[in-house]
Design goal:
Layout: H1 3-34, H2 41-71, E1 87-95, E2 98-101, E3 105-106, E4 111-118, E5 123-128, E6 134-140, E7 146-151, E8 156-161, E9 174-179
Parallel strand pairs: 1-4, 3-9
Antiparallel strand pairs: 1-2, 4-7, 5-6, 5-8, 8-9
The structure holds copper (II) ion.
Length: 180
């Protein structure tokens, strides 16, 4: 997703939250105002038991649609590394506030083995393609090396961003990888 599109989504979501809060307040008000009315209990129970089953089915369908839609783009089903591939090992050391990456220039088609650690606190190591889609990430942990494989299939400048809040200048913690 491009940054401009992302921004639009964030504004849309903020508006949605406000609308939902107003709706919820409306429901509370309606319940409070109608709580003094007296009526026969049995038909109400029957009516809402029925509504509850319809609601449950709708919820399951909605969750299925949302799950399928949101999970299909996860990289889990796209192996970027096959046993026997030639890989380029790269050491990454994160620190407050930057990354030491021992190689940052690659060619299209290269499969890289990122060995990620940190010299101070926990950081994130997220690699974004030239369209700012997250294509790979792992945690940078003290005294521990996390490895992940990434095949660069597009030329351009990739951004590396920290994905774990790690201090005041966390938002400035970035690096670049160039793929030719
Ligand atoms: Cu960080």
């Amino acid at each position: 997703m491009k940054p401009a599109v992302m921004m639009k989504w964030m504004i849309l979501r903020a508006n949605l939250v406000i609308i939902l809060i107003v709706l919820l307040a409306g429901v509370f008000l309606w319940v409070a105002l109608s709580s003094k009315k007296k009526s026969d209990y049995t038909p109400i129970v029957k009516k809402w038991y029925k509504a509850r089953s319809i609601y449950a089915v709708l919820l399951v369908v909605l969750m299925l649609v949302v799950s399928i839609y949101t999970l299909r783009e996860l990289p889990f089903n796209k192996p970027s590394y096959v046993l026997g591939d030639e890989v380029i090992p790269v050491q990454v050391e994160a620190y407050q506030f930057g990354f030491d990456i021992d190689q940052t220039e690659f060619s299209v088609g290269d499969t890289v083995e990122f060995n990620v650690t940190t010299r101070d606190v926990t950081h994130g190591f997220g690699v974004y393609d030239p369209d700012m889609n997250l294509v790979g990430q792992t945690q940078a942990m003290p005294e521990y090396t996390n490895t992940f494989y990434l095949t660069f299939d597009k030329p351009g400048t990739y951004q590396v961003l920290c994905l774990e809040y790690c201090g005041l200048a966390h938002h400035l913690m970035m690096a670049e990888i160039v793929v030719k």
